Description:
Blueprint: H1 20-43, E1 51-57, E2 64-71, E3 77-79, H2 83-92, H3 135-142, E4 168-176, E5 182-191, H4 198-213, H5 225-241, H6 254-262, H7 270-274, H8 276-295, E6 299-304, E7 316-317, E8 323-324, E9 332-339, E10 345-353, H9 359-374, E11 381-386, H10 390-399, E12 404-407, H11 409-423, H12 425-443, H13 445-459, E13 467-468, H14 475-490, H15 492-499, H16 502-510, H17 512-521, H18 524-550, H19 557-575, H20 579-593, H21 596-604, E14 610-611, E15 617-618, H22 626-639, H23 642-658, H24 662-668, E16 671-673, E17 680-682, H25 687-693, H26 700-710, H27 723-732, H28 736-755, H29 762-769, H30 781-784
Parallel strand pairs: 6-11, 11-12
Antiparallel strand pairs: 1-2, 2-3, 4-5, 6-9, 7-8, 7-13, 9-10, 14-15, 16-17
Amino acid sequence: MASTISMPPTDPSSSSTEDPAAKAVNKRYEGLITVRTKATKGKGAWYWAHLEPILVRNPESSLPKAVKLKCSLCDAVFSASNPSRTAAEHLKRGTCPNFSSVLRPNPSLSPLPISSLASPSVSYHHNHRKRSPSAAVSLLRNQVSNNNSHDTNNNSNSNSLAIVESTRLLSYTSHTDNNNNNVGLTQHHLILSGGKEDLGALAMLEDSVKKLKSPKISPGPALSKGQIDSAFDLLADWFYESCGSVSFSSLEHPKFRAFLNQVGMPAISRRDLSGARLDNKFYEAKDESEARIRDAMFFQVASDGWKRKSCCCSSYTSSSGGGSNFGCVEENFVKFSVNLPNGSSLYQKAVFTGGPVSTKQAEEVLWETVMGISGNGVQKCVGIVSDHKAKALKNLEIQNHWMVNLSCQLQGFINLIKDFSKDLLLFRTVTENSLKLANFVNNNLQVRNSFRKYKMQELDCAGLIRVPFNECHCSSNIAHVFAMLEDILNCSQVLQMVVLDDSYKGICIEDPVAREVAGIVQNEGFWNDLGAVYALVKLIRGMAHEIEVERPLIGQCLPLWEELRVKVKEWCAKFNIAEAPVEKIVEKRFRKNYHPAWSAAFILDPLYLIRDTSGKYLPPFKCLTHEQEKDVDKLITRLVTKEEAHVALMELMKWRSEGLEPLYAQAVQVKQRDSVTGKLKIANPQSSRLVWETCLSEYKSLGKVAVRLIFLHATSCGFKRNWSLMKWICVHRHSRIGLERAQKMIFIAAHSKLGRRDFSNEEEKDADLFMIGGEDGILNGVFTDAP
C-alpha cells in the first residue's frame, strides 16, 4: 500500500506570524492537538485515539494552509471542521476498513465494506461534508477522470489534494525539510496492474463484500410445484423439438441459468434432459405413432436421403476468393416415414450409411423397414416412394405384386436441371464462357481491383464472382455453377464498366485472354444466352419449390409434367431456342421417372373427372396416350388377385362410361383460396378417397385399387434435417449411447413437426430472417439439399 499523508506535529512558530490566515490555521491546529492530548489521557472523546490532526502547508510559501484529520488506521484524510461527525461517518458507520469491531463502541455493527483496497487515496468534495463509503473505490467505480477535490474549510481556496485518473489513483505523502519542517505534499501515481480493466474488477470486489455484509436474496416470482413441472415439461418439449439447434451444454450457460432463476425456475442440467425424461418422451411419441399405424387399413413408406451427397467433387471458390470444400462422401442420413390414407405422416426412423450404398443393400434396408412397420401384415404396406435407388424399388415391386414403388418427383425435377447442364449445348456454352470470364476477373489483380471498385460503386458490395472448382454434374456443383451465372448476370453493368476502363484496355494490348473476355462481355448474344439459361433454371426451380411445399399425390404427376412441357415451350419461343433438343431432354427425364400408377391414379381420382356434353363427370381417358391406357389396365390387374382381375377390368369400363354422379363430383372438386398463399386449393383433399369408400361402394374390386392409389404421395420429402443435429450425430456416431440419444431426439422432433405439418428447418427460417438470398436467387436449397 502506497504511503499517504503523514504530517507529525510541527512548531507553529516556524510559520509566518504576519499572515492572519496562517495564524488562524495554526491556532486551530494547536487547539486540536491539545484536545487530542487530553483525550489520549482519558479525558476526551474515544475517537481521538484514531484521528490525528495534521497541518498542511503551501508548497510554494511553506505557510500553513489548512488543518486536516488523518485516520491512523487507514491513512484517509478529512476536513477538521467537525471531528465528531468525521468519527461517526468514517469509524462508526463502517467506512474505515481497518476499524476493528473490538475497538468499536457498538460491536453489533455489521462488518465494514472495502474502502481503500486499491489505494488509500484522499478525496475531498467541494461543499460536501458527507463522505462516500470509500473514497478510492467509489471514484474508481465511477471512473471519474481528473475530478479535482477542493477543501473549502475556513473559506480557503486550496488546491486539489486528490486526482483520480481513468487508470490510476493519486495518493499523497507529506515530507519535511532538513529542519524537520513539514513543507507540503508529494503526489504518487498508483498504477493498477491490469490497467483500465481493473476498474470493473475492483467494483465487483466491493460488491461481493457488500453482499457478504448484508446478503439479500432476490428470488424470482414464486411458482408452485405444479407450475414448475408444467414449465419444465414445455421447456423440455421445446428443447427436443429443436432437434440439435440447442446444445445440451447451453442448458448450463450462466445467462440461461440466470433467466431461469429470474422467472422462478430451478436450474436444469444436461442429465435432466438426456436421461429418463428423454426416454419417456420418446416412448410416448412412439406409442402414439404405432397406434395410428395400427388403426389405418394400409400405408405408404417414404424413404428420403439416399441421394444426398453421393459424390465427391463439389468444391468451389467463394465470392471472397477463398476455397470451400463440400466433400460429398460422408455418412448419409436416410429418413423413413409413413404416409397414412388420411393425409398425415408419421416419422419412423433414420438409418446412417457409410456413403453410397448398392442396390442390393438399399433393397434390404427398404424391405427390413417395411417388415418392421407392418409386422406379419406386410400387405398393409401398399407402396414405397423414394428419392433414389429406382432399381431396388422395381425389384421389391416385382416380388410383391400389391406394392406401388415410386421415384420422388422433386428429385426428378432436380435431375432435369442436371440433364440440361450436361446435354443442352446452350448450357455448356454459357457455362464455359462464364467460367472463363469469372476466372480472369477473380485472378488478375488489376482487373479484380477494378471490378471491386465498380461493384462497390454500383451495388454497394465488393465480393468476387463465385466459381465452381470443376465441371462435375452433381447437385452441389450444379448449384455452384448457377450461383456463378447469377453473379455474372447481376454484375452485367459492372463488367461493362470494367472492360471499358482505360486500365483494362492497357491489359488487352499484351494479354489475349483479356481481349477474349472483353469480347464476351461486349457480346450481346452472350447476355441473351445467359439470361435464357437463368430463366429456364428459375422456371424449373420454381416448380420444384411448389412440389416441395404442396407435396402432390401421384394423381398430380401427369398434370405436373404437362405443365412443365407448356412452360418450356413458352421459354423456347421467348428466347428463340430450338424446341426439339429441349423437348428431347424433358421427355427422356419423364420416361425415367414415369410409373404406370401415375396414369391409373389420374383416371381413378374423382378430382380430375371432366364434365362432358351430356353433363356426366367422366374420367379423363382422352388425356392419356394409347400406351398409358394399357398401363392402367396392367396395373389394375396386377394389384388385385387373379380371380378379381376380370371383374376389376369390367368395373373399369363401367367407370369410364358412367363416371361419378355430378353432385358428388362437384363436391370433390370444390376449391377454396388459401389464406397464406392466396392460391385456390382443394377444400377437402380426402374427398376423393372417401367417395370410393361410400357412394362408389358398388365397385368392389376397382374400389380396392382406387383407395390404395389415390392417397399415395409423389414425393419422399418429410421434415428437413437439421445440420446442427447432424454435426452432433457425426461426432457421436461411434458411441452407442450418443447415437441412441440422437435417434430419440430425431424421432421426437420429427413426430412433432410432421404432426403440425412443418416441413422446414431452423436454418432456412434463420436465412429468411436475415434475408440471405432473395426471392429471385438461383442458389436454393432445392439444389444443395434436395430431399
